[in-house]
Every structure is written in C-alpha cells, then in structure tokens.
Amino acid sequence: MDVKGLGAIVTGGGSGMGAAVGRTLAAAGAKVTLLDLNGEAAEAVAKEIGGLGLACDVSDAAAAEAAVARAREAHGPCRVLVNCAGIAPAKRIVGKEGPMPLEAFKKVIEVNLIGSFNLLRLAAADMTAAEPLNADGERGVIVSTASIAAFEGQVGQAAYSASKAGIIGMMTPAARELARFGVRVMTIAPGLIGTPLLLNMPQDVQDNLAQQTPFPKRFGTPQEFASLVMTIVGNPMMSNDTIRLDGGMRMQ
Q: Where do the Ketoreductase domain residues begin and end (predicted)?
C-alpha cells in the first residue's frame, strides 16, 4: 500500500515507538493523527510532522470514538492503524504485601489489550466502508504491538504478558474476518527497544539487559520498529502473523 495522501492513526504517538512511526508515515506522505494519553506530547510531535495530535485514553470507548471522528474529519477515513499505546508495570502475583490487587491486573488489560481492540474496531469500521485502493482490493492495514513477553514473560509480568498474548490471540480472528474487505492485520512483538522506559534506567542495568540480546548487543531503536511497520504496510502479502523484533533474544 502506498500511504501517500492516506489517513493514518498511531496510538502512543507522543513518544518512543509511536512517535517514530508517526514521523515515518508522515515522511512517506501519510496524513497522520497521533493519539496519546499525554495530549501535549502528541501535539508536539504532530506539529513537527504536520499532523494532528489528540489526547486520548485508548481504553475509553467514547474518547476513542471522538478521536477517530476528529481524525476522519481532518484526514479522511483511517487506512493505516498502528497500536503502540501501552503500559508495563511490574508486580508479582503474590508480593510482600499479599496478592496483587485485582485492579492492577485489570488496568494493564484495559490499556494494552482492550485499548488495542478499541482502536482496531473503530479503524476497521472506517476501512471496510472505504473504497478499495488498488487492483488487489486493499482497503487498509492494522498493526498492533505485542511483546516477546507474550511468549516468555518474566516474574512480575503476569498482567503485561497476558495483555500482550491477548493482542496476538485476537489477530487471527480479526485477520480472517477482515480479509474479505481487503484489510490486513499484523502484530509486531518487540524485544528490548530503546524507549524512555528503558533509557531512564541506570546505565549498568541498561548494559546488562543489552547483553542478553544475541546480536546486535544493544537495544533496538524506535526507528527500527517504524521501519518494520512500513515494510508490513507496503507488502500486501503480509497478514495474520506476528513478527518478533528482538535480535534473537529469548527472555530468561
């Protein structure tokens, strides 16, 4: 799919991987809307790329519906959705203070999994109602972000791993349902990506984590994530699959 002139929505677009995806899509000519809980951050990146930045809690139905409607008014129907919004709090199932509060587990599921589905359903409605873009009948592409923790979660990642495994799990039924409309659905499972979450850790912790990657022995970059997104968007044969972006890492 050639994204030039097409409407694209990126969640978590105020920083990290989402911001990198937004910049890359805009550079390719897409009309980009960035959604982020931090509206000021989304607006700052949007100003830089000539897009639209909106504050949005992706887990809230009304907020997401309003944001997608704003994006549609500004840029036309959504043709590319990239779900990058997410949280990654670490908490043991049973800690020093007793069992994990159920609300802590619920919050991660709401943001990571329900938030991804919330935007998927709304973008899919735009895409399926739009005209085909090419001879293949392609109408849109949806890319969601999972994690290698979906396969190899560590201690303290029960909620996070469950949310990311859920994103992978909903991909196949979504891809099968939307295929007849010419809408492709893919998932990327990143390893250690150099986002503010990791780069704010002490340097010795960063170095130790980076050494766990077979090659290259460093964190991945948000731009490398964005590059993979663009490969998926541009290749019409890519659908219903999860691609690991982790340098061959398998979490201990």
A: 7-199
